[in-house]
Amino acid sequence: MAFAVAQASASLSVALRTSKATVGRKVALSQAAKPILSRSTKRNVVVKAVETEETQLTTDLQEYDDGRDGDWNITYFPGMTNIESMIDEIYSNGYNKKICVYAPGGVAEQMLLLPLIESIHTRLPSVKIDIVCTERAKSAYDICPYVRITLPYNVGGEVIPDNFAEMTGTLKGEYYECIVSAQPAGAGEAFLLWMASSGNVLGYTENGAGSIAAKVMYTSSEPTTSAELGRLGTSAYDSLEALVGEKLGGSYDSSNLPKVGVPAKYQEWAAEALSAAGVPPAGFVLAHGVPSKSAAAMTMGAFPASASMDVQALELLTKPVVVAAPRADDKAAIEAVVGDKATVVVVDTAAKLAALVQASAGVLAANTAALPMASYMGKPAVGVFESEEVAALYKYKGVTGVTAEGVASAAAAL
């Protein structure tokens, strides 16, 4: 009996003894809680204990320099490779959260998403927002100050196995707190976002059989009335914004326009292009939406008949006209029609288009990205649509929607 008691006592003392590894972790974490003098320049930083006078621990890890003070006795290295601590990006203000938005469509469709991104930022000002979108659409976020990175992927398109696997790994490696899908999800999109291992996946689902899988895999979902969201006009993401607001909390005034900004290098590009053409800044009307087959045309895909306007409409403008053409081949064709009545500039990215919108006195455009840009920047604009019904769907603040028959009277006000 005495032997059993002694053995139990010895086992208890061993169990209560603090290991060197535990002491080392406590020392490292207490050091990590100190105020930080300079923010880390790396992402996904984790903390691992190293040798100190108290613990005499050793490590063969190479020191990872991320710009912090060298006296911290902490080794930094990228990735979640230390399963002991699993601490992601410790800063003086606590954990840094990230949200991913899965965004369909081209540049013009991304403009419709900016109010949703503004809503997320307003509700959670310190959150980092990443975007998954197509390669041709990612330039839209050059003018959005709230987006950290864009991840190119064939959103809403054909599933390519190796791209699917790569994107799955990328999303898992980012450790998103929340993923918001603006793409009406079927089984494929739902499985991709579910595999990202985020604790919160919410978004639109399609109306077909694939929505059954999406509803199971999503934390919260909202069915859409149209598989092609562009056909809903500017209200395409209203119900998604309401869902996001319900889950994220906070408040957001939907009457506020999203903030956009043009990077300095694109402002300089616009100034040089206008100067070379002899066009005075703020003294011209920007025309966008000439007939083109280029993917850089930045048109809404929902209504093809509204994607371009008659070049002859430019003759109705009294101010100097600058025509934004998506490629050099289109420039030559337009110049053959308008002659010296307008200046044609090749504009193949969203930031270049935004720079010209910002420098203009107003915008005359078909159903393209130029209309929401003009609205967000407070520029007067006239949008030319195929019918009054389509024009009524796109309710941009400060933009007058007309058909081809009504261009003359509306353009005179620019």
Instruction: Count helical runs.
Output: 13
Q: How many DSSP E strands?
A: 14
Strand content: 15-25%
| Second rung of CATH, namely the architecture of the largest domain | 3-Layer(aba) Sandwich
What is the CATH C level class of the largest domain, in words?
A: Alpha Beta
- End-to-end separation: 100 Å
Helix content: 25-40%
Q: Please compute the radius of gyration using only Cα atoms.
A: 27 Å
Report the uncertain regions. 10-95
Strand order of the largest sheet: 5-4-3-6-7-8
Mean of all residue-level pLDDT scores: 79
Q: CATH homologous superfamily of the largest domain, by name?
A: Glycogen Phosphorylase B
CATH topology title of the largest domain: Rossmann fold
Shape: elongated
Number of domains: 3
Secondary-structure element string? HHEEEHEEHEHEHEHHEEHEHEHEHEH
Report on the biggest sheet: 6 strands, parallel
What class do helices, strands and sheet pairing give?
A: alpha/beta
In short:
By secondary structure, this protein is an alpha/beta fold.
